[in-house]
Amino acid sequence: MRHLTEEQLWAYLDEVLSPGEIQEVKNHLDNCGDCRLQLDGLRQIDAEMPEVIISEPSMRFTQNVMEAVELEVKAREYPPLVGLIWQRLYGMGLAFMIIGGLFFIYMNRFNLTLPETAGQMSQYAAQWTSHPLMTTFLIIPLVLWALFFADRILSRRMLGRG
Amino acid sequence: METDLYHIERVLKGETNAFRHLVERYQNFVFTIANRILKNREESEEVAQDVFVKAFNRLASYRKESKFSTWLYRITYNTAIDYTRRRKYDTDSLDREDAHFNVEDNFSKGQLEQLAGQQQRQFLEQAIKQLPQEDGLVISLFYLYEKSVEEVAEATGLSQSNVKVKLFRIRKRLKNILVTLLNNEAKELL
Q1: How many domains does chain B have?
Q2: A123 by DSSP, 3-state: which?
Q3: Is there a contact between A49 and B139 if contact means CB atoms under 8 Å apart?
């Protein structure tokens, strides 16, 4: 009697045979003890395979992943450094435009030329900035800006981005 | 049980915690694939963690036409392979020809399959570790996908008939490895 091949037995176990082929195998197994024994053995191995193949990570795995994901979410809250610089440049540009506009209005108001206006402004600026209190008020914003930039850079490094 | 799409949509709406459900559902899947490639638990866990963070960051680009597990498999495979290249592993070091195994079938038909469960499991574990990487991946995916040839084909890009042929060859190779291991074991005992 011709026995079933191992390929046929595996295909039978994997349920990939056609209905006709399944019936053929069943008919043979009804009459062949050797093939039934071999099928039982393969079935046993097949049952063990998921236990052997599928591995599990450590108990803390999910927690570790969620912590990493939380860091990613926090990192998104900080805008990119280049974007921040462009924002400041646009702000400075706007400030210059406003100051220039006021300068222009002052010139027209008092019918002054540009050198005369600049000269008057210089005198006023020299008077204002010579006062210690005014000097302090000018220096403090510069120091605060520097600290602000330093904080952004250090925060981004702590979050792991260069 | 909610579908993967349900949790994905919640994450995309900003409910970060919903991602936990996807991690719990697929952690074994991702870890098993990584471990099959890297053959090291610590590194596999590191890579698996990277995979989930990448998946989180790229979730908006997930196309719903394919299964989430297929998409995740591709990220896992690429991340693990990149990792091996950085570590300069020889991933083909375990690629053995069948001829290298001394298939002296001293065991009668059926005797191999009739080993006690625990002993059989130990030998199976050793044998699977000795499979070439690609074979190990295909057989792992087959059992991870609960024996669905269709899903293995979709994940690997192979045709279904190709997967069936590969599975048969892998099982044959596995059996040869098992016979060799058993022969060696018997020789040590004598």
Answers
A1: 2
A2: helix
A3: yes
